Amino acid sequence: MSDLGPRLLSQNLRGKHQARCLLTLERALRLLRQSEKLPESEVELNRQLHFCLLQASRELYPENEIAPSTECNNQPDPDDEARVKREQKRPDFQWIFLDRYEPDPSRSSRQFVVECKRLGLALRADWILNKNYTNHGIVRFREAEWAYAKGASSGAMVGYWQSMEADDLLEEIHQESRAKSFPDLIIAGTWQPGRVSRLDHVFERSFQGSPFQLHHLWVDLRPTSSAD
Question: Cα dist. 61→70, 95, 132, 196, 200 in Å?
Fold first, then answer.
């Protein structure tokens, strides 16, 4: 088989895997939205989402034996000669699978990384949720110190949308992300009150996996919203 063959097979395999992860994540967020009791804190929301991800995985892909890992460290990368700071960082969720078409075994580990943040009104002056979404979320996929999803072509952010109207919320996100030289988020379709809205943008990185597409799934957890 020519070099082109395995490369295309590898890209196809990774694309299918990333698509499965996104569909599982969206289904899990819908399950989370349907929960009778929802915690407020990010830590507890992530814990509840973990079980929703397992349920969604079973529903959508019962033959798939790869489960998402919670707070698992970034995986080592063969481009780093020794342990680096990024290996101490822990994304909220990630799926890890082996690319059987990758000729170099040291590069066969593939990850789909998800980071989660709350969205809405600032609760105190020193902890502004919508700024955190960029500074402690989006940035981690671009800065070498964090290098979330290094070597991957895409990843995801989850927004736990707890208050504010959609357009006002997005404008605050854009104010901070523009200050950090990120492109604006583009909504896919229309806002989905009471459900999951999808946004995306693409940006450059200084390490492998560039240009990089970051998918944003915002689950509407506002008390006044009605879910299907």
Answer: 19, 14, 33, 20, 24
Kindly state the tokens that stand for 57: 């995985």
Nearest alpha-carbon partner for 179 in 123, 135, 119, 126: 135
Structure tokens belonging to residue 41: 């804190």
Q: Which of 131, 93, 133 is nearest to 112 (CA)?
A: 93
In angstroms, rounded to a whole number, what is the distance separating the alpha carbons of residues 207 and 27? Answer: 31
Q: What is the pLDDT along the chain (228 residues), one digit of tens a residue?
A: 445 577 787 788 788 899 999 999 999 999 999 998 999 999 999 999 999 999 999 999 999 888 899 999 999 988 888 899 999 999 999 999 888 888 788 888 889 999 999 999 987 778 899 999 999 999 999 999 999 999 999 999 999 999 999 999 999 999 999 999 999 999 999 999 999 999 999 999 999 999 999 999 999 999 976 544
Max CA separation in the chain (angstroms): 60
Residue with token string 């080592």 = 76
Backbone CA torsion sign across 9, 198, 149, 154: positive
Q: Is the pTM of this model over 0.90?
A: yes
In 3-state terms, what secondary structure has residue 103? Answer: coil
Beta bridge partners of 213: 154, 202
Three-state SS across 26-58? HHHHHHHHCCCCCCCCHHHHHHHHHHHHHHHHH
